[in-house]
């Protein structure tokens, strides 16, 4: 998460740097250039320029070997520190595939049957209704088919919630689809799987990850806590663009999250891809279960037939099913296994093609996984000798322009609040989403969610614009006119989440 904004650089400076990327010496390994990758540096630099990216790293593996690894731009723009293949980034939701494979080690060791109800292994885990509690399996959680949508704002907090607290709150979360009816991506299910790992192994998720996967694959630069990123000897700062200004943020301070907290370099991720494309073998040793890899990378839950719905740029990329921490798709006639990751300040894509023994990883120090996906697609086309397609131009053309109706949120005409300010102040509670505290400072209402300040601006009557999903929070009164609750679309796929005002 962004803790604070430290430094600003003008957008014009960024453009100048981007234009210079082509002549800037990229920080690659001493690898002999594969002729299929001719022009890759120019292509990557063009993407970084067009999408206003400070830096990224790329690695390609084929038939068990690293054939390309390179860094582009800067990991620290102010200090002019370049990205190299050893630069560590947050990999965000690419973490899920690691957690899925860690579950596989429990299966291989006979500690877990993923087809049995998880409640039998983890009695503390209770769902919204008895149907889910009595029937949800680990396989359902791995494949996002419990019916629960994201509910990501449950974990929004100044102080990270403990695993026990997250597990307890699951019971209050409303599903948005029937059990096993459709794919509903839910980070919380992977977070809770970390608690199951600890329950069955006796070790924390991060310790067990290091023992079973990271150490055997010699992934020495990879860590499992968000707060470990800036402890790396060579890590990338994250950047975002606000208007015409580049804003540098600091790495987050949160702890373990089996859904998205790992950090790695492309050199380390290349080792992971070597194992994934070689039936779990690394340097002749069977590190991961070949059987579980095949299961994890096969379609387990159907999804809409286009992985990127509504984009005509993808007419030859079919399906979009889910395995265990992996999306499964047909990419221009090739079997692709992939997953992207997005966190504030960072994005990533990890992909491999099992029948082609090809793997690609792209790590970026800006929030927008589209960037990594474009680079991945253009490298895949080169490596698979496919007809050229200008992915960058096709997708860039689909982006809303600044100032266009799609990028501007209209503000309704304001009307006065219905009550004096002090009537709104107090603590509002929800059993899963925690607390929203409303206070009055200098005749203005302010809000915090679980101790974390959120943008809170009056719009009209008792409706406020807020930095929450849906962008709105609204106060409600009872039949005698007392303010009794506050609600908003914190999870857009279910009814508004309602926080009840705590009585004095």
From TrEMBL:
* Entry keyword Nucleotide-binding: no
Q: Which Pfam families match?
A: Beta-lactamase, DUF3471
Q: Where is the Beta-lactamase-related domain?
A: 49-369
Q: Give TM regions.
A: none
The record places domain Peptidase S12 Pab87-related C-terminal at 411-494
Q: Which UniProt keywords apply?
A: Hydrolase
* An MF annotation (GO) of this entry: hydrolase activity
Q: Which InterPro entries match?
A: AmpC-like (IPR050491), Beta-lactam-related (IPR001466), Beta-lactam/transpept-like (IPR012338), Peptidase_S12_Pab87-rel_C (IPR021860)
Name used for this protein in its record: Serine hydrolase
Organism (species): Mucilaginibacter sabulilitoris
> Lineage of this protein's species?
Bacteria, Pseudomonadati, Bacteroidota, Sphingobacteriia, Sphingobacteriales
